[in-house]
Amino acid sequence: MPFLFVLFAGTAQAQQRHEFSAKQAVEYAQKNSAQIKNALLDVQIQEQTNKEITASAFPQINGNAGVNYFPNVAVQTLPNFISPAVYGVLIDEGVKNGSGADIKMPNDIGYIQAQFGTKFSNSVGVNLQQLLFDGQVFIGLQARNASMQWARKAAEVTEESIRANVYKIYYQLAASKSQISILDANIARVQKFSSDTKKLFENGFAEKLDISKLEVQLSNLQTEREKALNSINNGYIGLKLLIGMPIQDSLILTDNITYEDIRNGVLDASQYNYSDRKEYQYAELGKQLGEFNIRRYELSKLPTVSLSSNYNYIRQANKFGFGGRWNPSSLIGLNINVPIFSGFAKDARIDKAKLQLQQTVNNMEALKLSIDKEVQQAANNYRNALATLDNQKRNMELAQQVYDQTRLKFQNGVGSNTEISTAQSDLLVAQNNYILATYDAINAKIDYLKATGKLQ
After folding, report:
1. What's the number of domains the chain is made of?
2. Co-location of 152 and 244 in the same domain
3. Theoretical Cys-Cys bridge with 20: which of 24, 94, 353, 450, CB 3.0 to 4.6 Å?
4. 287: which residues sit within 8 A by CB, 6+ positions away?
5. Are residue 82 and residue 26 in the same domain, yes or no?
6. Measured between alpha carbons, how far apart are the two ends of the chain, in Å?
């Protein structure tokens, strides 16, 4: 039990209360949504990739040390250069052989076997490599800024998609307050009417059946309210998940949305630019990177130039150790690598990059058509949603008037319970239709703003 109490207390302390406007909900999502965080990590990954490209233009310095042991030093076979010298001296001195004859140079003096080197060789030194020119690296350095913009734009595309969904759910939840208010008003109205009917029944002006019908209506309204609250709670859970908020935290929405809010901010569908869309900006950067790719492969046909140098100390001995004489050794070299023939691989890469660039251009043209379609469809849907919202608003107002008049007739004894039940049902239908039209109009407006690139 103590453990459970501590666990519950720790969970309770972890809960936080958040009061968010729609903009604050979006800002919270930008910091906590897993999708956005991963998109921002892609930006950092691209930054590290750029550092790798930059590093290839810097000097590459490496130290080295080693010990080599030769159990059997290699034997070299060489022409006998010693015997001719010896015979030359003997001949010059007039030396005689054992028979008393003059010594003569033999026709075949043969070969000698010699070992060069020692059993142990120690070395320690430093190497330096400096790339002086490489067309592909040069283009890679030029493309670093475009690559970063491309990665950032991809993150912005993800952010915009999350932003649109956050606005939709947020404002639908904000509009749901009206739904609960309407249901509460209906419940209060039926409760009042039920109370009045009971009094009429007690005075003999109403039937028991009238009271039962009102009790059924009241029960249905209360059930409808519970269903609406459950749906709203699920909406809050979905919003928390979308913005990356712990489910146990408390979320309060501070913004409201009214009929006027939905209607305001209408834009002219003919006034929009492709460049306002994040997706099109992303495609433009992709095209720019494709052009860099072609230039990279074209410059791969040029020679590469690099500088190499090393400085070493070498020790040679027949015994293992580090003492004795260490002799310096150094080298400076200029290396030029001239591509001559690579089996047409470079040409194939260039042609492939050009074809891929053409695909990007084609996709951009297709994206323009898609944007045109989205804007026109979103504008049509928005206008239709507003017209439907206006109609449902009028219907709800008319249904309210009919219900009020029918109830008044019933209270004055000139109306029937059937009439008031029908009016009540018509009012509920009109109210539900208005709420649904409100949700549709909210989605249509956000879709329209997103399609025109005006969603902030």
Report:
1. 2
2. yes
3. 24
4. 357, 360, 361, 364
5. no
6. 51
